[in-house]
Write a structure and sequence with these properties.
heterotrimer; A mainly alpha (about 300); B mainly alpha (about 325); C alpha/beta (about 400); A: about 300 residues; mainly alpha; ABC transporter involved in vitamin B12 uptake, BtuC; 11 helices; B: mainly alpha
Chain lengths: ~300, ~325, ~400
């Protein structure tokens, strides 16, 4: 472990980039954690929601030359539709009290289906598009904050705020929280479990799609793109505490910064192992993550 | 011989012998490609039988089977290529090494709840693939390992036709082993762990230990499968042992029927057949896997095995043939 | 046990059914057809390459059939997916050789899949033309059945280094390298180190990145700290664009040099005008060049959905098929695999229209001895600036293990 000779600015720059990456992981992981918190299902097809969002972003900006202001709502609608379709078979299983294992593997199957449909419809070529042009790169004394970084920060912040407003201030949001805490009591009060389930999935996938639109300009989009990025989102959620919303944000940022710092101090050749080692270590040593609630060991 | 009626067990025996004979003669009446498909089929059967014991019988979800296949494959390949170990011994050593790692890993990992276990095993799959890539002084990384000529004495085992018998024998042996495990006390302990860990531990059984044993067994099967895979293909690379493959094995046991001994066999057949049907349309292959998997989860929790069992009992009912 | 029996019996019959193959043809050649086997990555990591390769191959074969085929025979093809996995590639090769009885195999895409397949093609005595694997081990040791229709990592590195050292003034004395940890990257990296040593250039930074990385700040900053005279980027074009843009964002002036993989139009799509000045090298003719307009038009007519840049697989597979057609034609109406191989070995500086000239020799099946150098301009066009020729190192003639 050699300490490179570096100026303070390098550390700051790397941290800022790390935070930007982290916000991306968090954004994608957010929908994922939401679904888990409300329905106990680990959504292995979350990556595909991201991929769909990325494709929507691509087709709309590339073919129709729409500006990002229009693209977002449309991507959300896309995510909502996907979420709705996905939730049908999963509700079917949940309603029949199928073992959790089956439901989780069902999400794997759904992911495969969505991925291959995307490949059939859009074929496998890489699609590239650039982020919104109204965001420019800022440079503050030596530190560069690229337009993509700004994009990620602003979108993440925006949707986190919306998220909290929805869940804590609106009636629907509050009833969803109630249902997650105590499904039976909630249904006694008139909150329909099916409606909450569907809403959860719809929101979760919409969040994934939003993440996809942000992810698209950062990396090119292929049908396999979702698969690639979802691992990072997993790691973020695990690190922060699976099932904790602020946790995934903290976890994501921590993961992003740790990856970058590890690359700086340990060497960039082994960076890819970091996310996985993080997952395993955290799960073995402190499965509840940083902010998570203590879970019972079996 | 007057009044001798065909009994159930007579027919059963005849069918067993006939099918074993048939299988034994496969290399003679099928072309190279067909034999190769059978070799792959048997390897899938072995690996997914191991996973079936862990997931189907003991109820522990695992996305990490491919990691153990990799351990077996690379261990045996390195022994064969670099240390001139006879290949049969190398394969067995690969399996044993894999199972030791499985046992050791089992303790810290298997304490975790379902979802967390799924994630850890997923990470395990990916870490192992990355380790293979990074330890390239040993594994040759991306370029993969080529196996030298395989012989026992003067008998050449480089052709699909000849390695077939090796793989076939291992498959039969391991299937018998699986049947014995499942019907033994160990098997019953695993089944009760699947039912309820709390109840089982209240009986004074060391649940952690038995879970690790299950993990070790599945790793052993995976390791042997990996070794056989290496000698069948004569070439291995990191791409053969990733998350996609782990998902494939899971797919096999779910579609085939978890918790049934014949499940992995049905599942492997489906995978091979679908793979062949959709050769030219690879995307349809993935699509069909996904749809089939989802269908089984939604409507056929017992997979094909369940259907077959129901069909069999239906036939038994309808025909009085097997009475007596 | 009964379940198992039923299972086995069913499996036998089904697989037996599935594997009864074509019969009656000798060697993939009939009175009016020649069967070609194509194996590429239709799914998996490099599916975008495989997808366009497939499309270009189909275009080439349709074109030749429209003009009457070769000596009265139409080309028919069997296409298989290797998914970038050696196991699937081997399965595809076995099937194509033993069941489909193809005459020649083109592919599989990717060095490690190619290496796994070579022993099978030699065993089955079917010529194999590899258009997309860069590993030296494909053509070395020599085997008469294997044709290496792609530049090697050695040629790739050599052409970039030679051009840079001969044309840059002042000559660079330090280099910073960023490599993608894939099969191609590692190979190229090795050769970069060798070339750097030969030319007396010091490697002051040596960083790595992986598939799935979203950010290269750490690597770029470390290289920036070392302040090299040139920045050697051994990554795929879609990330290369971002990397170059970021490099320029930090105000770095050192020119960016890349190899074969950086050549794609995706570089501009992801990097914008920042890619101006980037040097790349390849055996492909540039799609931006007017002399390639015919190809681009034909391709877009046949496949209207194609993205802005047609990708590299298109030219690789189209051009390689042209060499195969030429070989088939030169072998004459009385077609055998041996005659085909010898016919291929008569190709000297053969112009496919989309690639650098191809030459095969009776003792050397490496297709290319020349590489084009291009510089991207701020509009993302690849402007030709030169070409390098290359003397391949000697081959070994030991039989493969």
């Amino acid at each position: 472990m050699r300490l490179p000779s570096m100026e303070k600015y390098m550390l700051i720059q790397i941290t800022i980039s790390g935070l930007a990456n982290g916000c991306l992981y968090a954004l994608i992981g957010l929908g994922f954690v939401l679904i888990y918190k409300a329905t106990e299902i680990v959504n292995f097809s979350q990556g595909e929601a991201v991929m769909i969002g990325g494709y929507i972003g691509f087709w709309l900006t590339y073919l129709f030359k729409l500006s990002f202001v229009t693209v977002y709502p449309l991507a959300i609608i896309g995510g909502v539709l996907v979420g709705y379709v996905i939730s049908r078979p999963l509700w079917f299983l949940t309603n029949r009290k199928a073992p959790l294992f089956n439901i989780i593997v069902a999400t794997v199957a759904i992911g495969m289906i969505v991925r291959s449909l995307a490949r059939l419809v859009w074929s496998s070529e890489s699609r590239a598009y650039l982020g919104p042009s109204f965001l420019k790169t800022i440079t503050i004394s030596n530190i560069v904050i690229t337009s993509e970084n700004l994009f990620v920060f602003s979108i993440t912040a925006f949707f986190i705020i919306i998220f909290y407003l929805f869940f804590f201030l609106s009636k629907t949001g509050t009833s969803m929280r109630a249902s997650a805490q105590n499904p039976d009591a909630a249904s006694l009060v008139g909150i329909e479990p099916k409606k909450v389930f569907t809403l959860t999935w719809v929101i979760g996938c919409a969040l994934g799609a939003i993440g996809g639109v942000v992810y698209g300009p950062i990396a090119t989009i292929m049908p396999d793109s979702g698969f690639t990025i979802i691992i990072k989102a997993f790691a973020a959620a695990v690190l922060g505490g699976f099932g904790s919303i602020p946790g995934v944000i903290v976890g994501g940022c921590l993961l992003g910064v740790t990856e970058n710092l590890a690359g700086l101090f340990i060497g960039t050749a082994l960076k890819d192992l970091i996310s996985f080692i993080v997952i395993i270590l955290v799960l073995i040593l402190k499965p509840s993550g940083i902010l998570g609630v203590r879970i019972e060991r079996v | 011989m007057k009044g001798y009626r065909l009994t159930k067990s007579d027919i059963s025996k005849v069918l067993s012998i006939a099918s074993l004979l048939f299988l034994f003669l496969v290399p003679i009446h099928l072309g190279v490609y067909g034999i190769y498909l059978f070799n792959l089929l048997f390897i899938y059967v072995i690996i997914s039988t191991g996973l079936n014991i862990l997931t189907g019988y003991a109820g522990q979800i695992s996305f990490g089977q491919a990691g153990f296949v990799a351990i077996g494959a690379y261990t045996s390949s390195l022994l064969i290529a670099d240390f001139n170990t006879p290949f049969l011994i190398s394969i067995v050593i690969g399996g044993l090494f894999s199972s030791i790692i499985g046992f050791l890993l089992g303790f810290p990992i298997l304490r975790l709840k379902e979802i967390y276990l799924a994630m850890v095993t997923l990470a395990w799959s990916m870490i192992l693939q990355l380790l293979v890539i990074h330890m390239d002084k040993l594994t040759n990384g991306w370029d993969g390992l080529s196996l030298p000529s395989l012989t026992i004495g003067s008998v050449d085992f480089n052709q699909d036709q000849s390695i077939y018998y090796v793989i076939f024998t291992f498959t039969l042996a391991l299937l018998f082993l699986a049947r014995n495990i499942v019907s033994s006390r160990l098997g019953r302990v695993l089944a009760s762990i699947k039912d309820s860990e709390i109840a089982t531990s209240s009986l004074g059984i060391n649940v952690s230990y038995y879970k690790s044993v299950a993990f070790a067994i599945s790793a052993f099967y995976a390791g042997i499968g990996g070794g056989l895979y290496a000698v069948c293909l004569k070439f291995i690379g990191p791409d053969d042992f990733g998350l996609m493959q782990s998902i494939d094995y899971l797919l096999i046991i779910v579609i085939g029927g978890m918790g049934y001994l014949s499940g992995p066999i049905y599942g492997s057949i489906i995978i091979i057949i679908l793979g062949e049907l959709f050769r030219a349309f690879a995307t349809f292959q993935e699509l069909s896997y996904g749809i089939l998997l989802l269908f089984c989860l939604l409507f056929l929790p017992g997979g094909i095995s369940l259907i077959m069992n129901k069909a069999m009992s239906f036939i038994k009912q309808k025909s009085g043939f097997f009475d007596g | 046990m009964k379940g198992k029996i039923t299972v086995f019996l069913i499996s036998l019959s089904l697989i037996f059914f599935v594997t009864t193959g074509f019969c009656g043809e000798r060697d993939g050649v009939t009175k009016d057809k020649i069967r070609i086997g194509l194996i590429t990555t239709l799914t998996g990591p490099t599916a975008d390459y495989g997808e366009v390769a497939k499309k270009a191959a189909i275009l080439a074969m349709e074109q030749i059939n429209k003009t009457g085929g070769i000596h009265g025979r139409d080309i028919e093809y069997i296409m298989d997916d290797s998914a970038y996995q050696p196991a699937k590639a081997v399965a595809a090769v076995k099937k194509q050789i033993y069941r489909d009885k193809v005459f020649v195999i083109i592919g599989p895409t990717g060095s490690h899949t190619a290496l796994a397949s070579i022993p099978l093609c030699i065993e089955g005595k079917v010529p194999m033309i590899e258009p997309a694997g860069l590993s030296n081990a494909i053509s070395n040791p020599f085997n008469k059945y294997v044709f290496h229709a792609q530049l090697t990592a050695g040629l790739d590195a050599h052409s970039m280094w030679k051009y840079v050292m001969e044309n840059f003034d002042p000559k660079p004395r330090t280099v910073g390298i960023l490599t993608y940890q894939g099969a191609y990257g590692k190979s190229k990296h090795e050769h970069d180190l060798r070339n750097a040593e030969e030319y007396g250039v010091k490697v002051v930074a040596d960083e790595w990145c992986q598939w799935g990385d979203v950010d290269y700040t750490t690597q770029i900053l470390k290289i920036k700290e070392a302040n090299p005279d040139i920045f050697m980027i051994n990554v795929m074009a879609q990330w290369g664009g971002k990397i170059i843009a970021q490099w320029k964002n930090y105000g770095m002036k050192a020119p960016c040099v890349g190899g074969n993989l950086l050549y794609m139009g995706l570089l501009y799509d992801t990097g914008g005008s920042a890619v101006d000045g980037t040097l790349v090298g390849t055996i492909l003719r540039s799609q931006d060049d007017p002399s390639m307009a015919w190809f681009v038009d034909e391709f877009r007519k046949r496949w209207p959905d194609a993205p802005r840049d047609l990708g590299t697989g298109t030219q690789h597979y189209y051009g390689t098929l042209q060499t195969v057609f030429q070989g088939l034609w030169r072998a004459g109406r009385d077609l055998t695999k041996d005659k085909f191989i010898r016919a291929m070995e008569t190709l000297r500086n053969f112009d496919t229209g989309v690639l650098a000239p191809v030459s095969y020799f009776p003792n050397d099946h490496r297709a290319y001895r020349m590489s084009y150098i291009y510089r991207f301009n701020e509009k993302g066009e690849r402007v030709p600036v030169g070409a390098t020729t290359y003397q391949h190192p000697p081959l070994s003639y030991q039989p493969r293990k």
